[in-house]
Design goal:
Number of strands: 10
Shape: elongated
CATH class of the largest domain: Alpha Beta
CATH superfamily of the largest domain: Periplasmic binding protein-like II
Number of helices: 9
Largest sheet: 8 strands, mixed
Helix content: 40-55%
Length: 283
């Protein structure tokens, strides 16, 4: 079966309409429509639900999507190998990440080894980044925290203590370190549920029986910084992600009881692929 039909199928599945898929692939809408119709007619399986111009995958379509993405990933691997004799002088590596800090240094290391390769970075939250990896939209993913799934292979990259930061007018700002117990009753600004920083810090607080005031939940690092700047409480962040600012003073927690770990993920079945292996070796 023509790989062009798989490309059309994947594009419609991702973009939700024939017209959007055609624009993404740079072909005409009738071409996409014919490829999808041929795929369904030959297989005698309905792959999409049609609701006006919108198209969503059926159960059978969702199963095919995973297989089609694997086929396209293998095709790309074969092209890399045949074109460059396994040297990766040209091509594209797609990276998913939840934040810029570590992924930029990884990109620099990779470019030093493979200057001819193009790299793209797709940012999102943990769920989005993992979903992109599992759909083969990205080749590798950079995430804080360990996700123990049989289909994923994780490699530890770095571990960093969680530090606090206070407004310069806060009483703690005159110090460089506080005990975990001193957070009792203190206003502590938290990220949304699912944040690895929040999960790690809450775990050690609960184990120590320390209860800060946590009435305010904020969904981004930037908003946390602004809230601290307005004196609404203490912020918490991975040491690697703390950005110096004259408005703030960083505070270590004595003994560094809480930390986050950054991992690089790939699909287990792709761990031996030329593209993925080249990235893991470079970093």
């Amino acid at each position: 079966m023509s790989n062009a039909r798989y490309r059309a199928f994947i594009a419609v599945a991702h973009h939700g309409s024939l017209s959007a898929a055609a624009r993404a692939l740079g072909v005409s809408q009738p071409t996409i429509s014919t490829q999808i119709a041929t795929l369904e007619r030959q297989s005698q399986i309905e792959l999409f639900h049609r609701r006006g111009y919108r198209m969503t995958l059926t159960g059978a379509g969702a199963r095919l999507l995973s297989m089609a993405q694997k086929i396209m990933a293998l095709e790309a691997e074969a092209e890399f190998f045949l074109r460059d004799s396994g040297q990766l002088h040209q091509g594209e590596l797609k990276i998913g990440a939840v934040g810029p800090f570590h992924v930029i240094e990884m990109v620099a290391a990779y470019r030093a080894r493979h200057p001819g390769m193009q790299l793209s970075i797709r940012m999102g939250n943990s769920q989005q980044v993992l979903a992109d990896l599992e759909r083969y939209d990205t080749d590798v993913a950079v995430l804080a925290g360990l996700y123990d799934r049989p289909e994923l292979l994780a490699r530890e990259y770095a571990r960093h203590a969680i530090v606090l930061f206070a407004h310069v007018a806060h009483p703690f700002a005159r110090r460089s370190e506080i005990a975990l117990s001193e957070l009792q009753g203190q206003p502590l600004l938290l990220r949304e549920h699912g944040s690895t920083t929040r999960t790690a810090l809450e775990s050690v607080l609960q184990a120590a029986g320390v209860q800060p005031r946590t009435e305010l939940e904020i969904g981004s690092r930037e908003a946390i910084r602004e809230a601290v700047a307005r004196g609404l409480g203490l912020g918490a962040v991975s040491e690697a992600e703390f950005i110096p600012d004259p408005r703030f003073r960083p505070l270590r927690i004595a003994g560094d009881p809480a930390s986050t770990t950054t991992y690089v993920y790939c699909m287990r079945e792709r761990s031996d692929s030329l593209l993925v292996r080249s990235f893991l070796e470079a970093i």
